[in-house]
Design goal:
The chain contains 13 helices and twelve strands. The chain is α/β, with parallel strands linked by helices and about 325 residues long. The strands form four sheets. The protein has a six-stranded mixed sheet with strand order 7-4-3-8-10-9, with helices on both faces. The protein starts with 11 loop residues before the first strand and ends in a 7-residue tail after the last helix. Bound molecules: adenosine monophosphate, FE2/S2 (inorganic) cluster and zinc ion (2 copies). One zinc ion (ZN) binds next to helix 13.
Length: about 325
């Protein structure tokens, strides 16, 4: 298989795009595509400050790398969840984020960025990114698995509590740090699996909140973007590999057996039989959403500010995050 651009040996063949590329051209293609999506969905502009939520996985570290190489002012946020799972999961993930930043700093003294008047070489001294770290156990006294074990929300699995805590902390750090926008590494496979799940139950509220860019339309909410939402998981993994980014290969130990993994398997089978299925499904959804298919529901969502933290909540009084820590009951009580 030859690279379509230069004829050298290709490192990746993307059947859905009918495109094979060599390493050099693939490393150019990913940032070009990302930049296209950033503009298309009006995610952010070069003068805005971005907070990238990094989990230590391939998607978020690749995203951070791409945004920095595109010349964006992007800091990282790692949330320590206190998950061990026999593989020291959280500590290893944290280490990957720290390592990424060290490598990035040492490798690059200057980067080529594209400005309005063409490509320029910019000294990265002033672009050197920061990594914010929030350790949940240190801050709130309990790890995610511990909180999940004493609340009904977890029902034995910490994923729901974990999602709630991550969303809250990301939003808080973005807001308190004066960032214009919060970026996550969700890729097309993630987005399509969520979409598939929500479409099975026609959950209009969730469908309405699923988008490449969610504006900060409520007080206390940060704008949220997913610049990799049209990039296949395989492409983002290949980017990390070819770029030499070290990332945590293990999935979260609690993800095993989850519905979203089951949905991903079904969707992979469909993609294999008909390349491009996932992308078409996602793009058709975005089109329908834009045309107002779920707009009716929007009018019915009423949010109040949480009495304690100020973040929007549908419940009166405290938000779900604050209730999580308020209702603290020790096991022997
Ligand atoms: P997940 O929900 O694990 O599929 O992760 C989706 C996205 O959320 C990742 O691409 C990251 O941007 C972000 N994320 C997940 N876990 C963490 C974490 N521990 N700290 C910071 N960001 C995270
Ligand atoms: Fe939160 Fe798995 S990452 S439970
Ligand atoms: Zn090439
Ligand atoms: Zn609250």
């Amino acid at each position: 298989m030859k690279c379509r651009k230069c004829g050298h040996e290709a490192v990746i063949n993307m059947r859905q795009h009918k495109l094979a590329l060599c390493s050099e051209h693939f490393l150019e293609w990913v940032p070009e595509q990302t930049q296209r999506f950033i503009e298309k969905y009006r995610m952010f502009t070069p003068d805005e400050r971005i907070l990238v939520a990094v989990s230590g996985g391939k998607d978020s570290l690749s995203l951070w790398d791409v945004l920095l190489r595109l010349g964006y002012k992007a800091d990282g946020l790692y949330i320590g969840l206190g998950i061990d799972g026999g593989v020291d999961y959280s500590n290893q993930s944290h280490e990957m984020c720290v390592k990424f930043l060290e490598n990035f700093r040492s490798q690059i003294s200057s980067v080529n960025v594209t400005a309005d008047d063409g490509p320029q070489t910019v000294n990265t001294q002033y672009l050197i990114p920061k990594l914010h770290v929030v350790d949940i156990a240190k801050l709130y006294g309990e790890t995610i698995p511990d909180v999940a074990a004493r609340t009904t929300r977890g029902r034995g699995k910490p994923c729901s509590v974990c999602g709630l805590v991550k969303r809250h902390v990301m939003n808080r750090v973005a807001r308190d740090g004066g960032y214009d926008v919060l970026a996550t590494g969700h890729n097309l496979d993630d987005e399509v699996a969520v979409l598939f799940g929500n479409a099975l139950t026609w959950n209009a509220g969730y469908l309405l909140r699923q988008a490449p860019m969610l504006p900060a339309d409520k007080p206390g909410l940060a704008r949220k973007v997913k610049p990799f939402c049209r990039l296949y998981e395989r492409e983002s993994a290949a980017y990390a590999l070819v770029r030499g980014i070290d990332y945590i290969y293990d999935e979260c130990p609690f993800a095993e057996g989850s519905t979203s993994i089951a949905h991903k398997e079904i969707l992979n089978q469909m993609e294999k039989d008909s390349p491009g299925t996932k992308l078409q499904f996602y793009l058709s959804f975005l089109r329908a959403r834009e045309q107002g298919l779920f707009a009716e529901q929007a009018a019915h969502v009423e949010l109040n500010a949480c009495e304690k933290c100020g973040q929007p909540t549908s419940a009166p009084g405290l938000c779900a995050f604050c209730r999580l820590w308020e209702r603290r009951i020790t096991k022997d009580e």
